[in-house]
Automatic annotation (TrEMBL):
GO terms for biological process: meristem maintenance. Residues 40-288 form the Aminotransferase-like plant mobile domain. Pfam families: PMD. InterPro entries: AminoTfrase-like_pln_mobile (IPR019557), MAIN-like (IPR044824). Signal peptide: none annotated. This is Aminotransferase-like plant mobile domain-containing protein. It comes from Arachis hypogaea (Peanut). The lineage of its organism: Eukaryota, Viridiplantae, Streptophyta, Embryophyta, Tracheophyta.
Amino acid sequence: MALRTWLETSTKSRLGLFHVLGDNKICLARTDYTLPPPNKVKQMKFHFTWFHERFRVLPADANEETVHIYARAYIMILLSSQLFGDKNANRVHLRWLSYLASMDKLGKYSWGSAALAWLYRFLCRTINRNIVNLAGPLQLLQFSTLRPSGFDVFGFPLASRCATYLPTTNVGEQRVVSARLSLDRLRDCDFLWEPYSALDVAAIVHPEILVVEHSRLWRAVTCLIYFAPIEWHQVHRVVPQFGGVQHLSQLALNIDWLHAKDSRGGDRWFSSYYQEGHLHWNNRLYSVIQVDRVADPGPLVEYLD
């Protein structure tokens, strides 16, 4: 039976898939689907094979609404497999439903930035020597701009270029020493405290971003949430970027602990499990810092000491 899924807040559906916080009724999506059997559901995900078979062929007599339903299903498959895939790569996550509710708004999201952030998240995880698998939009790693310098020599066979590109450990150590020496020699006058004030940067920034309404978000000490992962926006630690003086700040948050949080682990609905982070975001307008611009921004002497 085809059903239209409407979720009530603070309740769970008959499949036990959802738990949404709030006092109002929330429609996560206007999409019709046949409920899968229990063995095709795990946590908040549908098995890819069932989902693909359900929306594989568009009916010949499909009306406009049905076309939109199948389009949403296809986009969900792309999001769960190509852009924001996990190591399983065989399930379709339901978290995308809320973003597909409006086809008009769908193209206004910055999907490219989100995909890069998703890839960087998994790349950070692979720093741990115990991590052996890598997920995310790995096709982005094939871009020529990301290849190592000196790896652009072509010959036949193509694999032969690997024989000529054999960087030694000594070269790497020399680069590290050189980079550290350059950092040690930096003086106050060598820093560009307000990078967004540079003309070449201002030329490519959309003017709408510079309006006062959006500047409040720049100056908000809050958290940026991607479902489960949480990144803290600690602008109070980089006040010179806004033309102010950097005072002594509080101790930094445990970033390693925050980076360890992701959507894995049981059937928890993370907007409830990490409710504190969501409350910080909802109250972001109350955490906007005031920056008094000065002619010579930079840190105080006490800060440098």
